[in-house]
């Protein structure tokens, strides 16, 4: 019986010792989630998407590449101001127009862009899960001291423990809600960006194939 009491006491001490780290982690993640929400709103106001401009930029880049001005081709797509991920991927694709590994570099650029977008979403997905988990821990940990205080008739101590429990629940749910909303919005943005990038690659690939076909036809006729 004494062993059981000692084990229960150790578990109680360990769980109670986690209260302050959990509260500190909740406050830090809550501040991060608010900053994430602010950056999402800022990105929403600055996002730009124009398919006609994208088509013009890709066509101009193809024209520059056809006459051997590959630096001009890169500058042409740099003029398309969408977001850093799309711009960087387009530069990589256009810079390989004159190479023999064009198809391989296109596939690599698309895969890297997709992985980069998934990597950017990973912390948000973690926040969706971790926020409510920490909130639940912050709810359950003070319940032990609250029950002990109730058994001893210390109503004030019990009330303080319950306030901590309910507050951490609210903060944890708020973190989960903010992160989930941001995840849904950014996931849609990134999927749209990837679709636009694939569309741009299709334009550049068709232009390059047409150029190679015309070049081959001219050499054959010569």
Short account of what is shown:
The protein is mainly α and about 220 residues long.
Folded structure, characterized:
- The protein is mainly alpha-helical and 222 residues long.
- It has one domain (20-135, 145-221).
- It is built from 8 helices and no strands.
- It has helices spanning 2-17, 19-46, 51-66, 70-78, 84-95, 102-140, 143-152, 155-221.
- Residues 216-222 have low confidence and may be disordered.
Taken from the alpha-carbon principal axes, the silhouette is elongated
Overall residue-averaged pLDDT value: 82
According to DSSP, the number of beta strands is 0
- The helix/strand order is HHHHHHHH
Give the percentage of residues in beta strands. under 5%
So how many helices?
A: 8
What structural category arises from helix and sheet content? mainly alpha
- Kindly, what is the distance between the CA atoms of the first and last residues, rounded to a whole number of angstroms? 100 Å
- How many domains? The number is 1
Estimate percent helicity. Answer: over 70%
The largest β sheet comes out as: none
Radius of gyration, CA atoms, in whole angstroms: 28 Å
Poorly predicted parts? 216-222
């Amino acid at each position: 019986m004494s062993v059981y009491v000692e084990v229960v006491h150790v578990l109680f001490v360990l769980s109670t010792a986690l209260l302050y780290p959990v509260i500190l982690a909740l406050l830090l993640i809550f501040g991060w989630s608010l900053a994430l929400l602010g950056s999402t709103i800022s990105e929403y106001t600055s996002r730009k998407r124009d398919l006609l401009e994208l088509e013009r930029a890709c066509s101009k880049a193809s024209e520059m590449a056809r006459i051997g001005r590959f630096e001009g081709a890169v500058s042409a797509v740099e003029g398309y101001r969408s977001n850093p991920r799309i711009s960087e991927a387009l530069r990589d694709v256009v810079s390989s127009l004159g190479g023999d590994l064009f198809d391989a570099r296109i596939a690599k650029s698309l895969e890297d862009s997709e992985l980069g977008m998934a990597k950017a979403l990973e912390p948000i997905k973690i926040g969706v899960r971790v926020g409510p988990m920490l909130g639940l821990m912050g709810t359950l940990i003070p319940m032990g001291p609250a029950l002990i205080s109730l058994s001893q008739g210390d109503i004030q101590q019990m009330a303080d423990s319950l306030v901590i429990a309910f507050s951490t629940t609210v903060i944890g749910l708020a973190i989960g809600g903010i992160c989930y909303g941001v995840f849904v919005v950014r996931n849609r943005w990134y999927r749209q960006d990837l679709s636009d990038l694939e569309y741009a690659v299709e334009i550049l690939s068709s232009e390059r194939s047409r150029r190679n076909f015309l070049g081959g036809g001219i050499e054959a006729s010569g």
